[in-house]
């Protein structure tokens, strides 16, 4: 077991026991220096232990490996994004069991210096708390220092703004030349769907006879790929009644579509495109500025 020279590079060979107690061998080649090889060996062996005497960054890999098979892909993507950007850089090389309440408070103070919303601060803080709760529950960490450090941020943000019908109709005129976006904005405004739910809709989800839309999935663009997942919560699966005028407009809209497949997405663009259309439309129309989410 150890680090060996192999041609111009270095390799690592280690023996370890898996979670069932079976003895395993692991090899890794291609390290340019002995130092890189030894660092990889140390990190790998740390990750095989059930001890909290492990660097925070290495523990994160164990946490991610467990969570990624239990969470929706978009949920896991968001979790990793927040942790890797806002938490990992600060704690990465600290030993997990040695992170103190003071360390947490100092990290929180750094976040408070940033111009983050109260809800975003709360979200970041909760992600760190979840990591320590996981360590307490499954790796016998004595306690969660986040609990003693206290929380930051708020669960609920400021009351969201909204458009009255006349404001929405004024805005809608700015996307007359974009029929697909115009139809999408009308669905958002009159049905209360989330943007991901809207972008996942197929023609099969619309029942023109019953005048309903079935919400049963969600869309996101992750790592350059289209990803369809189940809705945010079980209660999100629902059937929404459409107003008569929206059914008529949708029928008119579909009459101009050619070769539409019933299983394909109705609105084949992304949230970013909708946000871009909204920002431009607000500037052109002069209506008050709101977020895409506020159309719900």
Automatic annotation (TrEMBL):
Keyword Transmembrane: no
Regions that span the bilayer: none
Keyword DNA-binding assigned: yes
Species this protein is from: [Clostridium] clostridioforme 90A6
Recorded family membership: Belongs to the 'phage' integrase family.
GO molecular function, one term: DNA binding
UniProt entry keywords in alphabetical sequence: DNA integration, DNA recombination, DNA-binding
Pfam families: Arm-DNA-bind_4, Phage_int_SAM_3, Phage_integrase
Gene3D superfamilies the UniProt entry points to: 1.10.150.130, Intergrase catalytic core
Name used for this protein in its record: Site-specific integrase
Residues covered by the Tyr recombinase domain: 158-296
Gene Ontology BP annotations: DNA integration; DNA recombination
Purpose of the protein: Site-specific tyrosine recombinase, which acts by catalyzing the cutting and rejoining of the recombining DNA molecules.
Residue stretches making up the Core-binding (CB) domain: 54-136
